[in-house]
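Sample intake sheet
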Amino acid sequence: MLTGRQAHLAEGEAPALRIDRGYGVFGVAADTGAEAQAALAALIPDDRELWIVEGEPWPVPDGTREVKRAVLAQMVADGAPPAARQGESAILALGEADAAEMAALADHAKPGPWGPTTHRYGPFFGVREAGRLLAMAGQRILVPGMAEVSGVATWADCRGRGLARALIGHVMREMVARGETPFLHSYADNAGAIALYESLGFRIRREVHVLVLAK
């Protein structure tokens, strides 16, 4: 991610990098050696977290503390995306003018780390009713030939209406039209979310490990 299509968002220098702090909290190190671990620790702000996502459990660098560990299911949809269903709510493109509402929705629904410029990963899409943003979904990580569905969020009083399903399907179709394979991450113990993603054509590819660090 930080050495490829989104290298322009990277902070730091090899052997460790992190995403621009406005966009989020993710970081990466070249390996678990002392030099890389020290460089990774140096990228952690005094008052914020750094999230590491790797294929194997990651050690805690000296001088930092472990806030959380979790296992994610990485899922890929390599078939045809789902077709839009008749009667689905109208889906709108979101942009800078929607940033405050998107941040409020993310703070409520907790779809994952969200920063003041996370919406610029884009494109993001949403559903509005009577002017209110009810739900949204977009993209985050870009790797060669693939794009991550992310930021899927719905206000609690609007759930059960199929908004997340409609938005994820829309984002998937946008990605496939660009020649990209959609993928996403879910907490491995979130059976409900995984069932929804499987019904949309995603399959579990592998498990990955999250380590949240702070000073």
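Comment: The radius of gyration is 17 Å. The CA atoms of residues 126 and 170 lie 10 Å apart.
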